[in-house]
């Protein structure tokens, strides 16, 4: 351990610097306090943002509205990264992983995407007698497939991973254990989707992404899994939406 005041080497058991007498515990407590405030601010801002988003979409969606909302979310996330920029930047290093893990990273989201699609579709049809279709929301836009890919398969994997497995994860890890950090980050990630049914799969999905982020200290694996998963779901929505139109 190094004293932040005079750069003197200090033993782990010491509470004060033997050279300048500065308390060692004080900087650590300040750092934890700062992290707590960032976590609270992050949660509050996200709560307000997703609440406003929910009400905005009650009046229907449009391309301009979608662009504004996604841009605001991206700016909020990027803004929070500056509180811990150096450590966030480290998460973009490409990790060294073996071929088996890489294969799992590619297969898991394919399986999860197909399972979640048909599972949630079944639950929706039984409980609510309706089927949600992501692609349908973009069908009236110019170049609908481009915008659906951008807003469903590209933006969320980048900015949600940066937000929940980057910003939030880093701050939580400074004030609590790894297990609690992974769990809380996954839970808040699930809550952000504003869907009770989605909690059934988004929470465990978040746990997996959090575990990989911790084990390999990178956001890339989570982004790849998140991207493939969302792309599979969107592709199935596109297929069935297109099939329905052809039948009509």
What does this structure look like?
This protein has 248 residues and is mainly α. It has one domain. 24% of the residues are buried. The C terminus is likely disordered.
Quick structural summary:
The protein is mostly helical. Helix content is 71%, strand content 0%.
List keywords for this structure.
mainly alpha, disordered C terminus
The structure class reads mainly alpha
Integer count of domains: 1
For the largest beta-sheet, the strand count, sense and barrel status come to:
none
Helix residue percentage: over 70%
Ends: how far apart? 71 Å
Strand segment count: 0
How many helices does DSSP assign? 8
- Sketch the topology as an H/E string, one letter per element: HHHHHHHH
Rough outline = globular
Sequence stretches where pLDDT stays below 50 over 5 or more residues: 244-248
Mean pLDDT: 85
Radius of gyration: 21 Å
Percent in strands: under 5%
